[in-house]
Write a sequence for this structure.
């Protein structure tokens, strides 16, 4: 099975969030701290086209945010509820 780098955490498995002076480490929910995603798994993703008022919504395999998706966001799949 092919793996791709998680675009949400850039392969780190966690996110560094800054809250005022505090820095908080949050585990990445998209890849479940794995740092990579199954390239065949489908995710809800969206981005802002520069010439559009609306965000483009896409559901499919993970995209590469560096290949032209401004303000790219990927949503965690929560099929497996805790
Ligand atoms: Zn991740």
């Amino acid at each position: 099975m092919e793996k791709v780098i998680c675009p949400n955490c850039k392969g780190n498995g966690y996110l560094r969030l800054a809250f005022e002076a505090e820095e908080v480490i949050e585990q990445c929910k998209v890849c479940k701290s794995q740092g990579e995603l199954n390239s065949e798994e489908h995710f809800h993703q969206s981005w802002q086209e520069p010439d559009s008022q609306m965000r483009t919504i896409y559901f499919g395999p993970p995209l590469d945010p560096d290949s032209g998706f401004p303000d790219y966001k990927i949503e965690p799949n929560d099929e497996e509820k805790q």
User: Anything to note?
Assistant: The chain has a mean pLDDT of 92.
